[in-house]
Design brief:
The structure holds three protein chains of three kinds. By secondary structure, chain A is an alpha/beta fold. Chain A is built from 18 helices and 20 strands. In chain A, helix 4 packs across helix 5 and helix 14 crosses helix 15. Chain A is globular, with a radius of gyration of 25 Å. Chain A starts with 5 loop residues before the first strand and ends in an 8-residue tail after the last helix. Chain B has a single domain, classed as ABC transporter involved in vitamin B12 uptake, BtuC, CATH 1.10.3470. Chain B is globular, with a radius of gyration of 20 Å. Chain C has one domain: ABC transporter involved in vitamin B12 uptake, BtuC. Chain C is 76% helix and 3% strand. In chain C, strand 2 and strand 3 form a beta hairpin. Chain C is globular. Chain C starts with a helix and ends in a 5-residue tail after the last helix. Classes of the chains: A alpha/beta, B mainly alpha, C mainly alpha. Chains in contact: A-B, A-C, B-C. Chains A and B meet through helix 10, helix 11 and helix 13 of A and helix 9 and helix 10 of B.
């Protein structure tokens, strides 16, 4: 094929003098599914934003279906039947499903400005049926789950009769079942002739679904070709730029955590949970976590893992049961109190819950530890000690040295942002670190650094309680894995018994069961 | 990503910095002074200063509330209500109580009213705009009702000193300003206040006592309003149920022009000083030029807009690379 | 029982309105007389019309503090024109043009220069009030009879202001609910950046709502002029706050993206007026009006926040 159906030719783009794309060229065949992989900051989103009409390239051109293509705005791209489904879904919860789909394309009564409601409803229902969603189209989007919302986005794409759909990290907020449903739908769409560009950090999905892979690093294409010409190692080394024989650092010092019965003995444990219940969310949860232990929590989305973490940290007060920390019973203690005792909690939403985006790196780093540094009743902050602590912690979590202390956190990459949040919690040298999806949306290189950090902390005696939806991550990282399903703890595996199928079976349970 | 140096020209840099408003004030003064013989005299400058002080005190309280992302529309009503309550207590037509009792009552009531605002915002989770709007109407109505729209006269001489003796008023203002500034810049409480305005959820998870901090900001605002009321009531020698009602927008305008963001997370006592100074100089200069009320109002509005436009331009010019 | 309470909460503004009607109806028979009820609607018209325009602005998470000043300038200009012998329709036209013009100025600074709405409309408030004072020479102006006829004219026994109010409410409702523009206003109010990404002409929408607000302010001024027959230096003062209160009472959120004109703002405006009307009829101390009104506003806002809390708790949790 001399010219591909979609061809990028020398696309370049710079922001404020920094080159984000440096002459990107590759082609996409009609009806194919291309996996676009690369670390955060490699340029994937920028490239797709150019394709989708959100940005203008500085140089280069795009050929689409035999014609030159340069969209001025998203509507122009839509006119060319290219749809971009962003990672943060672009839906309006305060509007209905149908209104979201037709927001800029409402069918109207001939020349009047009035919306033809019946037509809107009819078309929307049809579109929903195509994506496999049986929900009344007048329902407000705010009542839908993440998976359902994504299907509405896809329905939007179908409404413009898209021939190319770009997916940016579509599965990060989906349950396993929703992910499977998504891939079924993608297969159906491909059978109709649609092409897909699929951006994802979940390499397993990329390998399984895509027939072509393109690797970006530092704004350049470093590898491109059929999927079967790539192995995970080659892919990762292309992405990261250095050979990586494994994705996870070696986990030593786990022998003492292998004794199954000892793992249930609460005496001397750092964290002991007994009979924790919250109607509708948690049911009779009991487990312990010991000093220096990396304890993982697996389960499907909706199983109650984040809820459990929030209860452990005191963000949710309505639970019954006991939480013992360091031999002390925590009765309704506030997050502030728990921080004082040595707990730390990295939530799964760093933008909305972990960072003050417009504040400086230094201010974010010091936020949780301020109370410790305040002197006398008025809590004076002497400049020296706090600054020393900030410098120390920057080194510990390895924040990019080019980042200035006073820089607003908003300007950092995902990986550096997550490191800032981690640094914030580590400033106080916590005894127990609760991590909820610590590597979500982070590139491979930064992930490895975080894993190494976790192991180092555990080796020094910190207890780590990590929640993750990535099975490989838990298996590579932990000494023990707990599995939750429907608010209950259903399995407890020591490292010697780690088995992907077993965890998955425990997480999913009996497929014939009514509840999800 | 490394922050780029925006411009090499130091003058432009300074102009675009946080001293923009101060620069505008000086420029304004320099422009108008030659045209207005009375402006640059010591008497006039002292007048400007004494006029500015009560405004500044209230604006400082307002700044604290704005940093948390809220707003306190009820400050002028608190001024009015504390004015009449204090006057009633101290006036020889009223209770004839000693100075200390009157002053303490006013400050206490101001703080209490601020506490009520704070409670509604933190406990009931209501938007501050509407809560303090309702408070404003309520307290203003209350002040007018208790006095039946009549002023209260014959206040004790010692009390009048508080507002009319410049050194006293200056000392009070400096005390408030300095305390607020030090707390904001050098204490944990200040950092917590900024965090609450920047991201209350993240702050809460990080152990910041969000509710308490927000509550205290409103109490401080009420307290500052009461302090300003003392100065204003003393200066006017009258307890008035409509005291201050025309300066609400001036206070908000001055604070925002100074650079404090309405969205929270940003603000400094120094900025508010610049903003209040700007507005006061403007007001006085225009008054001295014998302009009519309407011209003054128009120019004031135009100046606020101008300052905001310059600030917006400055912000866009210095925005960071992503 | 809990379900019933939840239902009641959904219609809080209406329930409150009903409660006020029942309360004052029981305290005085005159209150519920048709002529008095019509009176309430007529008196609420001015604020109500302005509040409809304000609703559009609030829905985009903005605010328009200049509406009162717009009313003042429009009324002042119309007064001058009529006293100079200009025909009534021309004077009315001039008022509408002024409303649109000031709205355009607001829109320009907010959307093009990107200054926050609070400050821009605060400035136009100052400038507008100043202009009005200049035009009226800080004196009251008595308008010729023809204007008063506008206020007292009746069609089918209902005063003209009430008709105007009803029309504005219906048009506003139709636009918000049944036109793409209206739906996009909600999207912009929820998240302007996301709306831009979705292809909505955000700038155009933001500009339009301030034009609408200015226009409604002018129409509101027409009604007030018709009812008062004069322009005083205090014309329209504090109207911005009562308009915001009426909209918020009716369920419009100050954060944008939520609210409606029918029944919302309509009921909000009627509620405030019914309250004042009732207090007058039972001969309550006039000094108590603002106290009671603000207490009711506070109550309504609190119920509204409870309603939102309940609504979001019932929705499926989403990440």
């Amino acid at each position: 094929m001399s010219e591909h159906w979609l061809q990028f030719d020398g696309i370049a783009k710079a922001f404020h003098g920094v080159k984000v794309l440096k002459a990107v060229s590759f082609g996409v065949a009609a009806g194919s599914m291309v996996g676009l992989v690369g670390e955060n900051g490699a340029g994937k989103s920028t490239l797709m934003n150019i394709l989708g009409g959100n940005l203008q390239p500085d140089a280069g051109r795009i050929r689409f279906a035999g014609r030159d293509y340069l969209p001025r705005d998203p509507q122009d791209a839509a006119a060319h039947r290219i749809a971009f489904i962003h990672q943060e879904l672009n839906l309006f919860p305060n509007l209905s499903i149908a209104e979201n789909i037709f927001l800029t394309r409402f069918p109207r009564f001939s020349t009047t400005p009035f919306i033809q409601r019946s037509e809107v409803d009819r078309r929307a229902t049809e579109l929903l049926r195509e994506v496999g969603l049986e929900i009344p189209v007048r329902r407000l989007v705010e009542t839908l789950s993440a998976g359902e919302r994504q299907l509405v986005e896809i329905a939007k794409a179908l409404s413009i009769d898209a021939r190319l759909i770009i997916f940016d990290e579509p599965t990060t907020s989906l349950t396993e079942r929703e992910t499977a449903r998504l891939f079924e739908l993608i297969a159906r769409l491909r059978a109709r002739g649609l092409a897909i560009i699929y951006i994802s950090h979940t390499l397993r999905d990329v390998f399984r679904q895509c027939d072509q892979i393109v690797v970006l690093r530092d704004g350049q294409v470093l590898g491109s070709g059929p999927t079967n010409t790539f192995t995970t190692e080659r892919l990762v080394s292309l992405m990261v730029g250095r050979p990586m024989s494994q994705l996870f650092p070696e986990r030593a010092a786990t022998a003492r955590f292998q004794n199954a019965t000892a793992s249930r003995d609460p005496a001397g444990a750092l964290l002991a949970v007994r009979g924790l219940s919250r109607p509708g969310l948690l049911e009779n949860i009991s487990f312990i976590c010991r000093q220096g232990e990396v304890l993982g929590l697996a389960g499907l989305m909706g199983a109650g893992r984040s809820e459990l973490a929030r209860v452990l940290f005191g963000l949710d007060r309505g639970a019954q049961g006991e939480v013992w920390f360091d031999g002390n019973l925590l009765q309704d203690a506030s997050p502030r109190e728990r921080i004082r005792r040595g707990m730390a909690f990295l939530t799964e939403n760093r933008h909305s819950e972990g960072l003050c985006l417009d504040a400086a790196v230094a201010d974010n780093l010091s936020l949780a530890g301020l109370a410790e540094y305040g002197r006398t009743g008025l809590r004076w902050l002497p400049r020296g000690p706090l600054q020393d602590a900030i410098t120390r912690i920057r080194g510990e979590v390895n924040i990019d040295p080019r980042v200035a202390d006073q820089q607003p956190v908003r300007t950092l990459s995902g990986g550096n942002q997550q490191k800032v949040v981690l640094g914030k919690w580590l400033l106080r040298r916590p005894r127990l670190l609760i991590l909820d999806e610590p590597t979500r949306g982070i590139d491979v290189g930064a992930k490895y650094e975080i894993y190494r950090l976790i192991h180092r902390l555990a080796d020094n005696g910190t207890g780590i309680f990590v929640i993750s939806s990535e099975m490989e991550e838990l298996i590579g990282l932990c000494d023990r894995i707990l599995v939750m399903r429907n608010g209950k703890l259903v399995d407890d595996l020591p490292r010697s018994e780690f088995d992907r199928e077993r965890v998955l079976r425990a997480a999913i349970g009996n497929p014939e069961e009514a509840s999800s | 990503m490394i922050r780029e140096k925006v411009t090499a020209r130091p003058l432009l840099d300074w102009f675009l910095s946080e001293y923009l408003v101060l620069g505008l004030t000086v420029a304004l003064f320099a422009t108008v002074a030659p045209l207005t013989p009375g402006l640059a005299t010591t008497a006039s400058l002292l007048k400007i200063l004494s006029y500015m002080l009560p405004l500044l005190v209230v604006a400082i309280g307002m700044t604290l509330v704005m940093i948390t992302g809220g707003i306190d529309l009820s400050v002028t009503s608190i001024i009015a209500l504390t004015s009449v309550l204090g006057a009633k207590l101290m006036s020889s037509d009223g209770q004839g109580a000693p100075l200390l009792a009157g002053v303490l009552l006013m400050l206490l009531v101001g703080a209490l009213l601020g506490a009520v605002n704070g409670a509604m915002v933190t406990l009931l989770r209501l938007p501050s705009f509407i809560v303090t709007l309702a408070s404003m109407m309520f307290l203003s109505g209350l002040a007018i009702w208790t006095t039946q729209s009549k002023n209260i006269y014959h206040l004790p001489g010692a009390f009048l000193l508080l507002g009319q003796r410049l050194p006293v008023a200056l000392a009070m203002t400096v005390a408030v300003g300095l305390s607020a500034d030090l707390i904001l810049r050098r204490t944990v409480y200040g950092r917590w206040l900024y965090a609450v305005g920047q991201n209350a959820t993240a702050a809460h998870i990080s152990g910041v006592p969000v509710g308490v901090i927000t509550f205290v900001a409103y109490v401080a605002s009420g307290f500052c309003a009461a302090l300003a009321s003392i100065m204003l009531t003393a200066r006017l020698e009258t307890g008035s149920p409509v005291l201050g009602h025309e300066i609400l927008l001036d206070i908000i305008g001055a604070t925002v022009v100074g650079g404090t963001s309405l969205f929270g997370g940003k603000g400094k006592v120094a900025w508010t000083c610049f903003g209040v100074l700007f507005l006061t100089v403007l007001d006085n200069a225009l008054n001295l030029m014998n302009l009519s009320e309407f011209a003054i109002t128009i120019i004031k509005g135009g100046m606020i807009l101008l300052a905001a436009v310059l600030d917006s331009t400055r912000r866009r010019y210095t925005s960071q690379a992503l | 029982m809990k379900k019933a309470a939840r239902r009641l909460l959904e219609f809080a503004p209406l329930v409150l309105f009903g409660a006020v009607l029942v309360l004052f109806g029981s305290l005085s028979r005159r209150f519920l007389e048709p002529s008095n009820l019509v009176n309430i609607v007529a008196q609420a018209s001015s604020t109500g019309i302005v509040a409809v325009g304000m609703t559009f602005v609030l829905l985009t998470a903005g605010v328009d503090l200049s509406v009162g000043a717009i009313m003042f300038v429009a009324a002042a200009v119309a007064g001058k024109m009529m006293l100079a012998g200009v025909a009534l329709p021309l004077a009315l036209g001039a008022m509408l043009v002024i409303g649109l013009a000031v709205g355009a100025v607001n829109a320009f600074f907010i959307t093009r220069i990107r200054v926050v709405a609070f400050i821009v409309t605060l400035s136009t408030l100052f400038i507008g009030r100043g202009l009005g004072l200049w035009i009226t020479e800080t004196r009251a102006m008595n308008l010729p009879e023809s204007f008063l006829q506008l206020g007292s004219a009746r069609l089918l026994g209902v005063p003209f202001p009430a008709w105007l109010f009803g029309t504005v409410v219906i048009v506003g409702h139709l636009v918000l609910t049944y036109t793409p523009f209206g739906r996009q206003v909600f999207a912009v109010g929820y998240d302007a950046r996301a709306a831009r990404k979705a292809g909505v002409r955000t700038q155009r929408i933001l500009a339009s709502v301030y034009l609408i607000s200015g226009l409604c302010a002018a129409v509101g001024a027409v009604v007030t002029l018709g009812q008062l027959g004069a322009v005083s230096p205090k014309f329209g003062q504090q109207k911005e706050f009562t308009a915001i209160a009426a909209a918020v009472l009716g369920g419009t959120s100050l954060f944008g993206g939520r609210g409606n004109v029918l029944p919302g703002t309509l009921v909000g405006a009627l509620l405030i007026q019914a309250l004042e009307n009732g207090l007058v009829i039972i001969n309550a101390d006039p000094y108590l009006y603002p106290i009671i009104t603000s207490a009711v506003i506070f109550l309504a806002v609190w119920l509204e926040s409870l309603r939102n809390r309940v609504r979001s708790a019932g929705a499926i949790a989403v990440p």
